[in-house]
Amino acid sequence: MTLPQQLPLPLPVRAALGLEDYFVSGSNALAVALLDGWQSWPSGKLILVGPAGAGKTHLAHVWAADCGATILPAAALPQVDIPDLAEGPVCIEDVPQIAGDRPAEEALFHLHNLALAQHQPLLLTAQTAPKHWQLSLPDLCSRMEGTQTATLPEPDDALLAAVLAKLLADRHCVPAPDVIPYLLRHMRRSFGMAQKVAAALDAGALGRPKGMTRTLAREILLAVDPRA
Fold first, then answer.
1. Which of 87, 107, 117, 188 could form a disulfide with 77 if both were Cys (CB 3.0 to 4.6 A apart)?
2. What is the largest distance, in Å, between two alpha-carbon atoms of the chain?
3. In the chain, which ranges are continuous DSSP H helix?
């Protein structure tokens, strides 16, 4: 009997951003603990640093839910009322993206000073440490470099397995039981690679009656990570 071909019906990817959806392992435990202790941040501010896909936005949403913070991309700062924003906890994401943008840098500088003056916590996120941001405003640069950082390193095995499982679940994918163990043994350990692999597995499984198998995982790794 010929099985009917599965029609490719890609579903929207919706990331689960609750506390219960974030996996804590040895590699990220310190950063998570620093976020949990936000009431004790030096001067009431913290920079969360980590590579793309490390979970900075996820943790920012968990923190915002805990303290009632507003989350904004740094590039949007020139369009908002800074004094109004500074009246509560704030998270500004992707700060290095405004390097050289004078209005945005000045807005962040004023937000920083107002938030601290009003004892409101300020969380900032970036992929690199402040010394690499290339900000053009000296006063802002010095304040950022003087801010405590919490770093999310590349994942250990336990975290990488959890990240792969979550990325696939966000895509409504159910891999065969041996898929993630196979990926852990053969793929490069990085959040960026995990995102590429999950997206390619999702696309590759569409239309395949057997779904997401180890054979498919091997094909995907050869395509997206030839060094694996």
1. 107
2. 73
3. 29-36, 56-67, 82-85, 102-117, 138-145, 157-170, 179-186, 191-205, 214-224
Place of tokens 């094909």: 219
Spatial separation of the C-alpha atoms in residues 47 and 51, rounded to whole Å? 13
d(CA 96, CA 40): 25
pLDDT tens digits along 54-74: 888 888 998 999 999 999 999
* Length in residues, the chain: 228
The parts of the chain modelled with pLDDT lower than 50 are: 1-17, 19
The first and second tokens of residue 101, run together, are 């943008």
Contact partners, residue 13, CB within 8 Å, separation at least 6 = 170, 171
Contact 126, 49 (CB under 8 A): yes
Nearest alpha carbon to residue 88 among 61, 115, 123 = 115
Find tokens 């336990």 and name the residue.
158
Residue 65 in contact with residue 143, Cβ under 8 Å? no
Enter the pTM of the model: 0.72
Number of other residues whose CB lies within 10 A of the CB of residue 227: 6
- Would you say 45 and 140 are in contact if contact means Cβ atoms under 8 Å apart? no
Residue 68 corresponds to which tokens in the numbers above?
A: 């009632």
- Phi–psi pair at 124, nearest 5 degrees: -125, 150
CA atoms of 49 and 28, how far apart (whole Å): 11
13 is written with which tokens? 């990817």
